[in-house]
Amino acid sequence: MKITKKLFSMLVLLAAASSNTYAATDSYAIDNSHTFPRFSYSHLGFSTQLSRFNKTTGKVMFDKAAKTGQVDITIDTTSVDTGSSIFNEHIQAEDFLNTAKFPTATFKSTKVIFSGDKLSEIQGNLTLKGITKPVTLTVRLT
User: Fold this and answer.
1) I need a labelling partner for 31 at 20 to 30 A (CA). Which of 15, 19, 71, 97 fits?
2) Residues sharing a CB contact under 8 Å with residue 65, sequence separation 6 or more, in sequence order
3) For residues 70 and 16, is the Cβ–Cβ distance under 8 A?
4) Which residues contact 22 (CB under 8 A, 6 or more apart)?
5) Residue 131 pairs with which residues in a beta bridge?
6) What is the pTM of this model?
7) Average pLDDT for the chain
8) How much of the chain, in percent, has pLDDT values that exceed 70?
9) Which CATH number among 2.40.128.110, 3.20.20.140, 1.25.40.10, 3.30.160.270 corresponds to the domain 5-138?
């Protein structure tokens, strides 16, 4: 299973948008009871399977005036939920997520980019299965 930039962008935005801790400093704690990062994959070319992770933690901080921010998200990959306990075990196995060795995936921002007054991109590092790669997430707030 491959998690693409577009997919992880959606995961981070869902996590950030699901926060319910609001403060004057634009600091948000991820609300695990409302945050379910999702991913999809082709099922033998016949259908697209939608799955999710049930446990996510982290924080999102933005200073709109200074046009700065920070995102720090941790997804518990052992909480993968495909709708099938048998397939959950398969996804957690060594050939996919290898959750026994790598029980979390993380995203840590390195830079936020604003277009005018609106956040437009978040650059950072995604770590999955012990491999860290830079990604740029496109932000679309609705």
Assistant:
1) 97
2) none
3) no
4) 28
5) 128
6) 0.75
7) 84
8) 82
9) 2.40.128.110
